[in-house]
From TrEMBL:
Residues 24-282 form the EAL domain. This is EAL domain-containing protein.
Length: 292
């Protein structure tokens, strides 16, 4: 490379890189302070029986309520929390809040369903995870049957032997376990069999293809069918993620998957917003959207 070119590259890239690192650094500092100030909030997205609309459980999803920037989605702060270790502070805040919300609803006589909390890879392999979780549970006196943990397939595959041990401990405590974003992390089937999971969540990316040009004949459709088959063979529940259309809902019902989460049924909602739905116990499924 000619000297001139190198210099030009240098001049072009360095400020950009610096700016990005600086932004990351500022964001990390802001997040650290935000966590202390209680700016992390949870939204809840129902998982429903897509034939009846009955609410079976819900997933807790973190948002950062920034005083100036508004509601920041997890895609903008979870990766930073992961790479800086801040996730080890964030995770317990999420779990504590989910437990406290269950307590509040119980006290108010709101019919509750289990809440699923996401555990990231760094949390999963944290020393003493089981005890840390048990401490939080003991403080709030929540029945472990009311809690589920979602672990991504890629997190579980990072260190499969360790994952089997840790997840077995959590299972022994009475928690429900599910594999998140399944189909994207190349878990071998023999390992899948060893993980003590009760549910598999089909990654949203496969669902999006259904209803497109190829409809039931896309690769995504084939993968969704294969995962549903896998679930019934292994005796594991299947939850479809990211269901947005009646075509996708119909496809799932036709292929034997009756549980899903997606904008078609409900967005992630604040505790206040989801309360009437919990009281009703179900979601109205609007069948009027044209079936293509
Ligand atoms: P995830 O666990 O796979 O969560 C599902 C994501 O799909 C959520 O995005 C949800 O809002 C979105 N979603 C649900 N239905 C639909 C739909 O019909 N269409 C589309 N396009 N999207 C849909 P969200 O809330 O932005 O969260 C993104 C990711 O951030 C989560 O993916 C999870 O990996 C992570 N995350 C969120 N909260 C937490 C947390 O408390 N702890 C950890 N460790 N990770 C979290
Ligand atoms: Mg999840
Ligand atoms: Mg997912
Ligand atoms: Mg995801």
């Amino acid at each position: 490379i000619a000297k001139g070119d190198g210099r030009r590259l240098y001049r072009f890239f360095t400020p950009v890189l610096n700016r990005r690192l600086l932004e990351q650094f500022h964001l990390e500092q802001a997040l650290r302070i935000g966590l202390e100030r209680g700016e992390l909030v949870l939204q809840y997205q129902p998982r429903v029986d897509i034939t009846t609309g009955k609410i079976l459980s819900m997933e807790a999803l973190a948002r950062w309520r920034h005083p100036e920037r508004g509601l920041i989605p997890p895609s903008q702060f979870i990766p930073i929390a992961e790479s800086t270790g801040l996730i080890l502070d964030l995770g317990p805040i999420v779990l504590r809040e989910a437990c406290q919300q269950i307590q509040r609803w119980k006290a108010e006589g709101v019919p509750i369903v289990p809440i699923a909390v996401n555990l990231s890879a760094n949390e999963l392999y944290q020393e003493d995870l089981t005890h840390r979780i048990q401490d939080i549970m003991a403080a709030s006196q929540i029945d472990p049957a009311h809690l589920e943990f979602e672990i991504t397939e890629s997190a579980a595959m990072r260190s499969i032997e360790q994952a089997v041990t840790i997840l077995s401990q959590l299972r022994a405590c009475g928690f429900t376990l599910s594999i998140d974003d399944f189909g994207t992390g190349y878990a071998s089937l023999s390992y899948l069999n060893r993980l003590p999971m009760q549910a598999i969540k089909i990654d949203r990316s496969f669902l999006t293809e259904i209803g497109g040009e190829l409809n039931g004949h896309s690769q995504g459709a084939a993968i969704v069918k294969a995962i549903i088959g896998l679930g019934s063979n292994l005796g594991i529940h299947i939850i479809a993620e990211g269901v947005e259309t009646q075509v996708q809902r119909r496809f799932l019902i036709d292929h034997g998957c009756n549980v899903a989460q997606g904008y078609l049924f409900a967005w992630p909602l604040t505790a206040e917003e989801i309360e009437p739905l919990l009281r009703a116990g179900r979601i109205q499924i609007d069948e009027t959207e044209a079936l293509v």
